[in-house]
Each structure stands twice: as structure tokens, then as C-alpha cells.
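Notes for week 9. Today we move from apo structures to complexes. The key idea is that a small molecule is not decoration. When we ask for a structure prediction with guanosine-5'-triphosphate present, the ligand SMILES becomes part of the input, just like the chain. The input block below holds both the sequence and the ligand string. Read it once before you look at the output, and try to guess where the molecule might sit.
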Amino acid sequence: MADVQWFPGHMKKAERMMQDSLKLVDVVCEVADARIPMASRNPDLDGIIAGRKPRLLILNRADQADPNVTALWRAYYKQNGVPFLECDAQSGRGVKNLPQALRALRDKPGPMRAMVVGVPNVGKSTFINKVSGRRTAAASDRPGVTRGKQWVTVDRQLELLDTPGILWPKFDDPAVGDRLAFTGAVKDEVLDTEELAAKLLVTLRERYPKALAERYRLQPEQEEQGWQMLETCARNRGFLMAGGHVNTERMAAVLLDEFRGGKLGRISLERPCGTL
Ligand SMILES: Nc1nc2c(ncn2[C@@H]2O[C@H](COP(=O)(O)OP(=O)(O)OP(=O)(O)O)[C@@H](O)[C@H]2O)c(=O)[nH]1
Ligand SMILES: [Mg+2]
């Protein structure tokens, strides 16, 4: 990940746009991925908001996250006084609590404008569509769909600003980049998908070995390398090529696709500090 040129120019522009738009809104809705509630939060956002506007953390894709882990996050945010809303923008579960959650952020009544920000593909536009009950914002299952900003009127009390997903120039921890790539926030075109899939297998072995056993008949040994696991999966799936070679490229694409599509079950890759 480190040497991949994945920070396109339009992201820099998006960050500037976010700074400008801040003046136009009362609150910021930061949409994060419930499977990776740390990696999917832009560390630059604190600096951009700089305490000027209240912020609501929206933990989206809760349907794909491990419910036991989400419960830990819920307790963690409550304990730390972080205003948050848990939801699944695709089905709409939890979305109707937005107006109430936003009102709790400020004292004065009256109409509100909120800017919706977050990493690519986390579900910002889908969330806005669900809140408004219309399909105004373009949404699709790949990163980088929303290119410009777009106002969506929910009702007389609420207007939402859709923004393009942004990543930040540098990850302090390479694992952050990996997790964003696993979940689909980074375009696959700029990634080595086999390497990524191998890393995902190593990650899943830690907490979700049963999912690997059930889906790919993989009984991973602790000392096994990621690429060896990928080969076993490919063989078990019958992804073979001429000369008896296994098609790990195809397996990598399938694994990433199935993980992102929830075929491996509900999985969380990050837990609050200090929890087991
Ligand atoms: N399972 C599940 N899928 C979701 C959820 N929210 C969004 N999606 C799907 O994720 C994909 C991306 O959604 P978008 O709304 O386009 O994401 P975005 O954050 O606006 O993406 P960019 O505009 O590219 O930054 C779509 O296929 C949605 O249907 C969710 O809560 N659960
Ligand atoms: Mg969008």
C-alpha cells in the first residue's frame, strides 16, 4: 500500500471544498464504517472542523459488522461522550433517528444544515437518500461515485450536503490502508489484489476462522503464510489453470468480493482499545 500512488488530485480538491462548505452548515455528519470504526475516520477532520461545528458520528454498515463488536463500540462512545448514530443505510435501519440525534447537538431550534462527510464508498449518498426518502444522490458499490457537492432537502427542518468521499495523504499505520482496501474504500485498480487478499486471510484467521472453514474449507495453520492460504482456497474452489497451477488472481477477486458482499458473515476488523 505504502508505495501505491492512490491519492488522486480530486481528493485534495475535496478536502478544500470540505473546508469551504463548513461555513455553510450547522453540523457535520461523519459517516464511518461499523466494521472499521477507527480506520474509516479521517484523522485530518479534527483539524478541518477545528471545534467550529458540532459533529455526529454515523456508524454505517452496521448490518455487515459483528453485532457483539458493535455493542462494544456503543459502550465505548457512550462512555466517552461521543454523539453517534448506528445505522444501515441500505435497509434504512436506524436512519430515522437522525433528526433527533442532530437536534441533540445544539441548543437553538429551527432549520438545520448538515454536511455529510466520510471515506469513499462508506454509504454517504445512500444514507442521504434514505433520510430524504428520494434517490437524489448517485450511489453505487464502488469508491469515488460522488464527485461534486450536492444539497438535498429532507424537509423544512433539514438540508443535507452530500460530498465526495475522501482519503488522506498518508496513513500512520499501514494496517489502516489495508483495512480501507479490504472494505472497498480504495479503488481496486490501484491495489495488488492478491497481496490484499492474502492479508485479508491472515486477518480473518485471527478472529473468524470458522467463516474461512465454512466458506472455503480452509483450516488454516497459525504458521501458514497468507499466499499459501490463498492457494488452498483457490484449489478448494477448483480455480485451476493449465499445468496444474492454481488461479490465485481469480480467488483474490472472489474473496474480496465475497467479504465485501457479506458472504462470510458479519465481521468487524477493529475493536475499541482495551477490549478483548
Ligand atoms: N450492506 C450495506 N450496504 C450499504 C450500506 N450503505 C451503503 N451501502 C452500499 O454501499 C455502496 C456505496 O454506497 P454510496 O452511498 O455510493 O457510498 P458513498 O459513501 O456515497 O461513496 P462515494 O460517493 O464514492 O464516496 C452502495 O452499493 C450502497 O448500496 C449499509 O449500511 N449496508
Ligand atoms: Mg457518494
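The two ends are 28 Å apart (CA to CA).
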